[in-house]
Amino acid sequence: MYEYIKGTVEYTGPEYIVIENNGIGYQVLTPNPYVFSSKKGTQTIIYTYQHVREDIIALYGFPSMEEKLMFRKLIGVSGIGPKGALAILAYGEPSQVIRAIENEDEKFLVKFPGVGKKTARQMILDLKGKLHDVLADETSYLPTENMKSISTDDENNEALEEAMLALAALGYSDRELKKVAPKLQDKDMTTDQYIKQALQMLMT
C-alpha cells in the first residue's frame, strides 16, 4: 500500500523508528533502527512494506529498496516470518544473503539469528535462482535523498563513528567496540554497512 514515506525522523528505539509526515507519526519496524539515529529531526526516506494479518497490522521499513525487496523474498520462505526476515537483514547485506543462497552455503546462512539447518535449506530451495531482481540497478527510480556516497576520509570516519554510537546504544560494551573498530577503519562504507559488518564480527 505504501511504497515509501518521506518525512522527519522523530524517534529511534531498539525495534522501530517514528517518522512524521504531515502531522502523522508512523511507527516503522526496521532491521537497524539506529541507522536513522543520526537523521533524527531531519527529513529522510524509508521504503515501506505493510504486513496485514488477522491479529496485527504492522509497517516495516528499510533504508533502501534493495533491502525491502530482500525482505519480501525472505517472508515468502516457509518458516520465516517478518521478525525473522528483519533479524537476517539486521546482520547481513542482501548481497551476502543472495551469494550464500546461490552457492548453497548453509554454513553461512545458519549464522543468522533464528535460522537453523532446516530453514537454511528451505531458503535455498525457495529462493535460489529467483533473486536476480533484488540487486538490479534501481537508481533510475529511487529518490536521490536516500543515495549516500562516501568520497572523503572525513565522511568515512563520520560514518564509522555513527555506527559505533549505534552499536553502543544497542548494548555493546566499549571493550567489544574497541576490538572491532580498528578492523573497519580502512573500509569505505556507509553507516548501515559498518553496523552490519561489525555485528558479523561480534557474532564470531
From TrEMBL:
Tell me the name of the encoding gene: ruvA
> What is this protein's function?
The RuvA-RuvB-RuvC complex processes Holliday junction (HJ) DNA during genetic recombination and DNA repair, while the RuvA-RuvB complex plays an important role in the rescue of blocked DNA replication forks via replication fork reversal (RFR). RuvA specifically binds to HJ cruciform DNA, conferring on it an open structure. The RuvB hexamer acts as an ATP-dependent pump, pulling dsDNA into and through the RuvAB complex. HJ branch migration allows RuvC to scan DNA until it finds its consensus sequence, where it cleaves and resolves the cruciform DNA.
Q: Which SMART domains match?
A: HhH1
Keywords, comma-separated and alphabetical: ATP-binding, Cytoplasm, DNA damage, DNA recombination, DNA repair, DNA-binding, Helicase, Hydrolase, Nucleotide-binding
Please provide the record's free-text comment about the domains of this protein.
Has three domains with a flexible linker between the domains II and III and assumes an 'L' shape. Domain III is highly mobile and contacts RuvB.
The region called Domain III is annotated at 156-204
GO molecular-function annotation terms?
DNA helicase activity; hydrolase activity
Q: What is this protein called?
A: Holliday junction branch migration complex subunit RuvA
Name the HAMAP family for this protein.
Answer: DNA_HJ_migration_RuvA
Please report a single Pfam family linked to this protein: RuvA_N
| Main location group | cytoplasm
Q: Which organism is it from?
A: Lederbergia wuyishanensis
Outline the subunit composition.
Answer: Homotetramer. Forms an RuvA(8)-RuvB(12)-Holliday junction (HJ) complex. HJ DNA is sandwiched between 2 RuvA tetramers; dsDNA enters through RuvA and exits via RuvB. An RuvB hexamer assembles on each DNA strand where it exits the tetramer. Each RuvB hexamer is contacted by two RuvA subunits (via domain III) on 2 adjacent RuvB subunits; this complex drives branch migration. In the full resolvosome a probable DNA-RuvA(4)-RuvB(12)-RuvC(2) complex forms which resolves the HJ.
Where does the UniProt annotation locate this protein? Answer: Cytoplasm
UniProt lists the family membership as follows: Belongs to the RuvA family.
Every Helix-hairpin-helix DNA-binding motif class domain range = 72-91, 107-126
